[in-house]
Amino acid sequence: MENGGISSTDTGNGGEDVYSSKESNAFCADHLVVMVHGILGSGSDWKYAAEKFVHQLPDKVFVHCSERNAAKTLDGVDVMGDRLAEEVLEVIRRKPSLRKISFIAHSVGGLVARYTIGKLYKPTMKVNREELLNNAESKGKIAGLEPVNFITAATPHLGSRGNKQVPFLFGVTAFEKVASCVIHLIFRRTGRHLFMNDDDEGKPPLLKRLLEDNEEGCFLSALQSFERRVAYSNVGYDNIVGWRTSSIRRNSELPKWEDSVHEKYPHVVYEERCKAYDKELCDPTVEIDGLDELEEELVNGLSSLSWEKVDVSFHKSKAKFAAHSIIQVKDQSIHSDGADVIQHMIDRFLL
């Protein structure tokens, strides 16, 4: 299907490819951008963003909107991650000229993408962690491609069980405890993973395992291999994913924000670049700041890598209570206020 210089191809049970209608541009595009939907979502959730990326970077990017997990988002982060890994490999087999790869994921899709890259990661040589940090050539590849951008939007990196991590529970401890006990009845294995009460064969919770290289996959090395990691977060009105968990921060680290940092991006209210720090050097006497012990491990583990953090606010939007969907422009007719966030992603995107 062609629309304004942009073509799309439905790949059946494997999502939709979006690319330039101009044959020479489509041929030159060697950067695969995999867009991953969240829980109860589908590949069409990223339609607006996919078309914007191709329209502005026609000879650079080839976008794939993942669909393999649509209607199957309750099966667990690991199961969905395995499906997505196979889907990515199929895309690469269809277009063998691809050289680079980036991921843009919404909500739980960010956790699924982190699992996927761990399964697809292959080191270029055997090196220790210090060499990985200092030598870009030794950082390995994802499915044989050079990893560039790993971007999440409203992803619960710290899980959902902590205080105010799921805003619609109003921060009431009793509600949060009950939710932790019954969430599997609604969201099944995915719910267990989010509330970190999964116990697969006696293993630690999956979100903790995603901080490591282990027999399941090289999850930490894979995430580290990307040139940049970016977390977009809603500072408020996201009733599904709290600000702290999506921005990988402790309460005391949540910044004070203003209405806008740039007129081109009216809903971007704060940006910061966080350098990697050594979790082994963290002062064990520092107050955990409202986080439970496992959440603190997740913060420390993820903060051992550098991150760009972009905080957005739709508090002036008529549809502000749909912030969780606005941040990705899930439906252009009602979520268009998030268009500047997508533009921000494009303008900062490394090619």
UniProtKB/TrEMBL annotation:
Q: Which Gene3D superfamilies match?
A: alpha/beta hydrolase
Domain DUF676, first and last residues per copy: 29-245
Q: Which PANTHER family match?
A: LIPASE ROG1-RELATED-RELATED, LIPASE YOR059C ISOFORM X1
Instruction: State the name under which the record lists this protein.
Output: Lipase C4A8.10
**Which organism is this entry from?**
Salvia divinorum
